[in-house]
Design brief:
504 residues; alpha+beta; 6-stranded mixed β-sheet; 39% helix
Length: 504
């Protein structure tokens, strides 16, 4: 009996056939890797950063018959042979060792990112006083079915070439068929769509490259002449931000750096800053790990399946830094927009994730505790029993008890029944839906002057009768609603009530 392994080692003869891919088919396939406009432009910027650029300008012309997008940098530029190599799909082996500042991955970014948005890619580069240009035109490739780039002899007519300095590179996108969804529009409508997409891209660029642009001497990115402000997802400049010590995990191919942050409560930030850090999807979707490769943000807003996103943990954000030598371990994709945790890192994070989230939980629970602390006159009591949590109006609150005392005995029962009915009718489902995504938008209802005055006077009467010091009373009232939400009016009513009592 012959074993399978013996067959494996037997020499066999075979024929070979040319399997060179058809240029037109493959190059069209590169368009559908899954780039969005923001990830495509980010990939072009990666090349500029790798080339040592200190300034990158993004220029859009949307209000013309043939709209275009140009990205111009002042990096080291390329000679013609380097440019041709850069225009070749798969120009770098992803397994090859890269320099530390190199943000590239597969050698596909320039081409696949560009083709995902346009049908004509022109690159003009200047180095050592010489200017070189190369063009991929997908319509030309489709007609000729050849792996051949065009090399223009005269570059003077190329849009944006006048923006090049002594050294640098221009990446020009024309025939922007993907930006408008492949639908024919009027010039005005097409410009509106492109400008809207560019505006959506702006925040992405501010976030992805924030660690470069925080130092303007290191890098400046301008969009149509306007510098993009860095968007720090950890709000490190806010004094209320809590940061844990940095941890390092040493692996075969380098070190993984981990640092957790707890964002300030929304009351400790301006609304503009709070909304800016949250982004269009809100803080609930922005919590979790922020993975950086060479200080460039790759992925964010995920817990990698280690825990669920929740309202209580939405202030937790964790920076993870990896070098470009770990691409294979983390399964970084062509677009540099997705990754997977290596098992050893997953195990480490699973052990510390509870501690990572504690800061965020404490921030909310501390504020929530004040609302139900029986020493702080809560309007609502939190009752936890039999695995369930209920909120009931606190009928012992001075505003209720003082009013009930002044009611005839036959009406008191009906009054307390009404209060209990309000508690039993709490709209749990609606509150749950609102808290899941926009908790900071939920605010106490406003009350009129007469209602507030009655609540203040009743509370003062009961607490003064219990021989509480006025400073202690003010401290108690300042922490709970409805007094906290209308504190200036509350202070005025307190002062007027005390003055009236003293006059008597």
């Amino acid at each position: 009996m012959t074993c399978f392994s013996e067959h494996v080692h037997q020499k066999t003869t075979s024929r070979r056939a040319d399997a060179t891919p058809h240029a037109a088919s493959l190059i069209e396939g590169l368009r559908d890797i899954g780039y969005s406009l923001e990830t495509a432009i980010s990939d072009i910027i990666d090349n500029s950063v790798t080339a040592g650029a200190r300034q990158i300008r993004i220029i859009t012309e949307a209000c013309i018959d043939e709209p275009l997008i140009a990205i111009v940098d002042d990096g080291e530029g390329m000679a013609e042979d380097e440019l041709i190599a850069a225009m070749r799909p798969g120009s770098r082996n992803p397994l090859a060792t890269r320099d530390e500042p190199d943000l590239g991955r597969f050698g596909l970014g320039l081409k696949s990112a560009s083709f995902s948005q346009c049908r004509r890619l022109t690159v003009v580069s200047r180095k050592d006083g010489k200017t070189s240009a190369a063009v991929w035109d997908l319509d030309d490739v489709a007609e000729r079915n050849e792996w051949a780039v065009q090399l223009p002899d005269d570059v003077t007519g190329i849009p944006g070439v006048d923006q090049l300095g002594a050294t640098g590179t221009l990446v020009l996108w024309q025939k922007l068929d993907r930006l408008t969804g492949g639908v024919s529009h009027s010039t005005a409508k097409r410009a509106e769509i492109i400008n809207r997409r560019i505006a959506e891209t702006e925040r992405h660029l501010r976030l992805v490259f924030h660690r470069f642009t925080e130092d303007t001497k290191l890098l400046r990115i301008l969009l149509n002449g306007r510098p993009l402000r860095p968007l720090d997802p950890f709000a490190r400049k806010n004094p209320a931000t809590i940061s844990d010590p940095e941890e390092k995990l040493t692996l075969i191919r380098g070190e993984v750096e981990i640092q957790s942050f707890t964002l300030p409560h929304h009351k400790q930030m301006s609304k503009a800053d709070w909304d800016d850090i949250a982004g269009p999807e809100g803080h609930l979707k922005s919590q979790g790990f922020y993975l950086y490769r060479g200080r460039r943000l790759i992925l964010y807003g995920t817990w990698f399946g280690l825990c669920r996103q929740s309202e209580l943990t939405k202030l937790s954000r964790v920076r993870i830094d990896i070098p470009n030598s770990m691409d294979a371990d983390w399964k970084i994709d062509v677009k540099k927009s997705s990754a997977q945790l290596p098992p050893v890192v997953r195990d480490r994070l699973r052990k510390v994730i509870e501690r990572i989230q504690d800061g965020s939980k404490r921030t909310y629970l501390k504020r929530g505790q004040k609302l139900v602390d029986h020493e702080r006159l809560p309007m609502w009591n939190r009752v936890q029993a039999d695995g369930q949590i209920r909120y009931r109006p606190n009928i012992g609150h001075p505003a209720f008890s003082d009013f009930a005392e002044r009611l005839p005995p036959d009406l008191r029962r009906g009054f307390f029944n009404c209060i209990a009915l309000v508690g039993a009718s709490l709209p749990i489902e609606a509150l749950h839906a609102d808290m899941a995504g926009t908790a900071e938008q939920i605010v106490p209802d406003r009350i009129d002057e007469d209602t507030l005055a009655q609540a203040v006077q009743a509370t003062l009467s009961v607490l003064l009768g219990a021989r509480k010091d006025i400073k202690e009373i003010i401290s108690l009232m300042k922490d709970v609603d409805p007094f906290r939400s209308a504190w200036e009016d509350t202070q005025r009513i307190i002062a007027a009530t005390i003055e009236t009592k003293e006059d008597k």
